[in-house]
């Protein structure tokens, strides 16, 4: 089962996440004789056998390439067919660590939806754990079941049940569920919470997380949790931010002096350049006036045109009339040392320090996460009471 067990070399029957392009990934079961067709060419499954996960594979005609990636819940989340809104990795990873879910945990999830989070749970629980996932929409439930089957999860640790948990609860005939973690991604989790007492662990603390997009839903969820005796109730939201790491040039006082001198030199250059241009326009000989063009009866050149022409000609300065080279503009843009050049980030001739900056596009939250814990009350033996 490749979604939670890693291997190096691809064999027939394995699952491969085919990376076709930045926006396009496709999960394939390696089947001899089959071919993937992409706009970059076609790729034979037979040639995948024996390659390593992570390898690049060239198209059958010798052009175009794809990457053969190991399937993971994270890659599945960004490539799965959406049937519903889904939980993304920033939230799922936080929920899993916050509910202390690990190998051997017993998790209750509703609804399954597009089974994005289901894959992350299943990978984390390993073959000693158990995941009970519920979905009341029949078509979605069947689609999810087929996927979980294909990805080998049903065989290892996952049970999917077609059920309205708000109405009919979570119990499954013949199963002792004993959940130690609960995740509810439902429109009305407060109606499902009262059913949980029949299926959560009586031996150990159970953590719950309810995933709701609106604060009004959070209000009702908190009220239901309190009513049912859950404690440590806390609502959080996860804000994903990408950080950019880069180098910043280290400058000292002598650099500042150089920079000021450079600014002064450029100012002088400007004044000198303008003086030369003015001098030329004063000494230029004006062209004689031209009257009408005989063909189209419009002036070939007006006085105004001539004025413009003489100005532009006067700007074409002969080499002998150009400002001295030390006054010529040697470059534009950021110029930290007044050398008239751009300095490439990390150029080894200068000193640099490592800095980080937040990218401007901040990926914000998708839902509020309400956490709580249920601590089982141990019954005292009659005689001790
Ligand atoms: C937002 S989706 C869940 C997405 C899922 N967490 C994922 O990551 O792919 C919510 C799902 O809950 C299901 N649902 C809503 N009410 C339900 C109920 N009472 N019992 C079971 N499933 C329910 C919906 O059909 C829907 O598929």
UniProtKB/TrEMBL annotation:
- UniProt-recorded name of the protein: tRNA (adenine(58)-N(1))-methyltransferase catalytic subunit TRM61
Q: Which InterPro entries match?
A: SAM-dependent_MTases_sf (IPR029063), TRM61_C (IPR049470), tRNA_MeTrfase_Gcd14 (IPR014816)
Q: Where in the cell is it found?
A: Nucleus
* Family statement drawn from the similarity comment of this UniProt entry: Belongs to the class I-like SAM-binding methyltransferase superfamily. TRM61 family.
Q: Which gene name belongs to this protein?
A: TRMT61A
Taxonomic lineage is: Eukaryota, Fungi, Dikarya, Ascomycota, Saccharomycotina
Q: Which Pfam families match?
A: GCD14
Its source organism is: Scheffersomyces spartinae
EC number of this enzyme: 2.1.1.220
Where S-adenosyl-L-methionine is bound, by residue?
Answer: 135, 164, 185
Which reaction(s) does its UniProt entry say it catalyses? adenosine(58) in tRNA + S-adenosyl-L-methionine = N(1)-methyladenosine(58) in tRNA + S-adenosyl-L-homocysteine + H(+)
């Amino acid at each position: 089962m490749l979604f939670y067990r890693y291997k190096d070399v691809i064999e027939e029957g394995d699952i491969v996440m085919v990376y076709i392009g930045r926006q396009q990934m496709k999960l394939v079961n390696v089947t001899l004789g089959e071919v993937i067709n992409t706009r970059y060419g076609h790729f034979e499954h037979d040639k995948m056998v024996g390659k390593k996960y992570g390898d690049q594979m060239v198209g059958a005609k010798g052009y175009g390439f794809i990457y053969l990636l190991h399937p993971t819940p994270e890659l599945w989340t960004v490539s799965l067919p959406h049937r519903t809104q889904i939980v993304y990795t920033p939230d799922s990873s936080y929920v899993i660590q916050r509910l202390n879910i690990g190998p051997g945990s017993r998790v209750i999830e509703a609804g399954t939806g597009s089974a994005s989070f289901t894959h992350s749970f299943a990978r984390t629980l390993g073959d000693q754990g158990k995941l009970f996932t519920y979905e009341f929409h029949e078509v979605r439930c069947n689609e999810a079941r087929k996927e979980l089957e294909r990805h080998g999860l049903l065989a290892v640790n996952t049970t999917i049940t077609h059920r309205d948990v708000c109405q009919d609860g979570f119990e499954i005939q013949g199963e002792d569920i004993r959940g130690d973690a609960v995740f509810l991604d439902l429109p009305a989790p407060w109606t499902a919470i009262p059913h949980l007492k029949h299926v959560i662990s009586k031996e150990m603390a159970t953590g719950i997380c309810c995933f709701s997009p609106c604060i009004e839903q959070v209000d009702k969820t908190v009220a239901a949790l309190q009513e049912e005796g859950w404690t440590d109730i806390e609502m959080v939201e996860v804000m994903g931010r990408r950080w950019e790491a880069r180098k910043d040039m280290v400058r000292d006082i002598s650099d500042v002096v150089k920079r000021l001198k450079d600014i002064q030199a450029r100012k002088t250059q400007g004044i000198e350049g303008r003086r030369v241009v003015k001098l030329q326009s004063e000494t230029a000989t004006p062209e004689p006036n031209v009257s009408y063009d005989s063909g189209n009866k419009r002036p070939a050149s007006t006085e105004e045109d001539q004025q413009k022409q003489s100005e532009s000609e006067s700007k074409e300065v002969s080499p002998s009339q150009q400002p001295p080279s030390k006054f010529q503009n040697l470059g534009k843009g950021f110029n930290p040392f007044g050398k008239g050049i751009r300095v490439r980030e990390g150029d080894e001739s200068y000193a640099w320090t490592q800095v980080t900056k937040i990218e401007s596009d901040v990926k914000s939250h998708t839902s509020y996460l309400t956490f709580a814990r249920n601590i089982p009350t141990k019954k005292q033996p009659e005689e001790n009471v």
